[in-house]
Amino acid sequence: MTQTQRTCVGCRQVDAVKHLVRIVAVNTACQVDEKGNAAGRGAWIHPNSSCLNRAIRTHGFDRAFRKSGLDCEPVSRWLDNKSSGVDAPELTREKESG
User: Fold this and answer.
1) pLDDT for residue 87 is more than 70
2) CA–CA separation, 50 and 34 (whole Å)
3) What residues are paired with 33 via a beta bridge?
4) pTM of the full structure
């Protein structure tokens, strides 16, 4: 059985969903979709600062969501909290059906 794969909007590498975090656009800001099931278009990114910075610099989120000027600060704060161990949810996902 093959794992679901997605492309990171930062480094553009294809990877298994269990190694990525789903980001959604809520109004004018990017938000982390911790459960991976929020409605609407999603973008996937490796949970590290280099991929996040590259996605911001290359407008990866703007392209993925077909919107410009999105605020990525909530994703940056989530990543900072995750790396410091404060309120950082686990990134492991249950096996997806389908």
Assistant:
1) no
2) 20
3) 22
4) 0.80
